[in-house]
Design brief:
Length: 375
Amino acid sequence: MPCERRPRSDSEADLYWKNIETTTVPISQDLQELIRADLKKLWYWERLEKSRWKVKVNWYTDDTHRVVLKDETGTVTPKQFLLFCNKATAFYYLQTAHHKDSRGNMTLIPGIIFAMIAREWLQYHTFKPNIEFKHYFANPVRIATGGPSDVPGIIQAHKSLCRQSSELMIKARQGDLWDLGLRGVNLDNYDIHPLYKAVILLCDDFNMRVEPDSNDVFDLQEAVYSQTILIVRTGEEVGLSSPISFSSLKGKTLPLKRPELGENSNVEVIRTSLADGIRFVCDLEEKEFRAYPQSVHNCGSDQRLNPSSPTWTGKSEDASKDPDTWADALIEAGNMYGYDEDDATRISIRRVQAAMIGENFAELVPIPFRRKWKE
């Protein structure tokens, strides 16, 4: 009996498929159909990855890419108002949740919190979230030393930021902000949603109690239930389908540990895990989408997220406008010039052939933001 081939490990399979000799054409129709289906998945994957890494810039770099609350009312610059659009909520970092920078100042926000939010948001939407026109779960607001330090003060600051953003949106639509690099941006696809004005999340303590494993890697699935946040109703609920209620979080709340929120406080706020807070807000957003399906939540496709078009096919239309057109154009180009002439088809045919024998190669999964974070 011929001996069976020893299954290749993932690293061995990866090395094999990377170095396999050049693909020859023509290829069978059945294989082309498998590649076409794979390329359509790749179209969605590339758009999602481009969106994720654009969002990371706002959360994980310096203050030039996010809003910083330096006083009680805050300031939204003309180049920042779109950061408030198409988000479910805002995520405020109090000074007590900051890290020290190289000069000893509390200016750094924990990047792992962003990673936990990104992971949970993707999981909630089964890896198919709405990413059109800067849509995301939240935008970060870093509260600097001079900003508000209590929950009522943050509520007032949030109302101020929303008001300023709305005023700037009106000016932009009237053409008064012509110098902002908005050429080609259809502002009809952007809005500050009622839910964004109604509920905010506050991180007042970086209290994640998860230790890294032996390889110094943090498990985000465990960490997101360890980190706590505050969920706050702002009292601004005009435009919502119904008032917000915390009843679905019964049994999941934790002690507030906020001295300003005593028995006489009229602020509706609870503390819960970051995981439960994310899912609570996502549930609210889904509820609003079902109530108002024709809202800006469902305004079409953001072409700027699309993959690059294979221009050598000689077609005049945008070949990346949708997954079918893109896949067909790449298949046509592959049949004309060879499947190894473009990275998309070169990797796709190998990914398909690997899957046919039960191996994994260049899987279309989210790229980890850091190697030390297990997503």
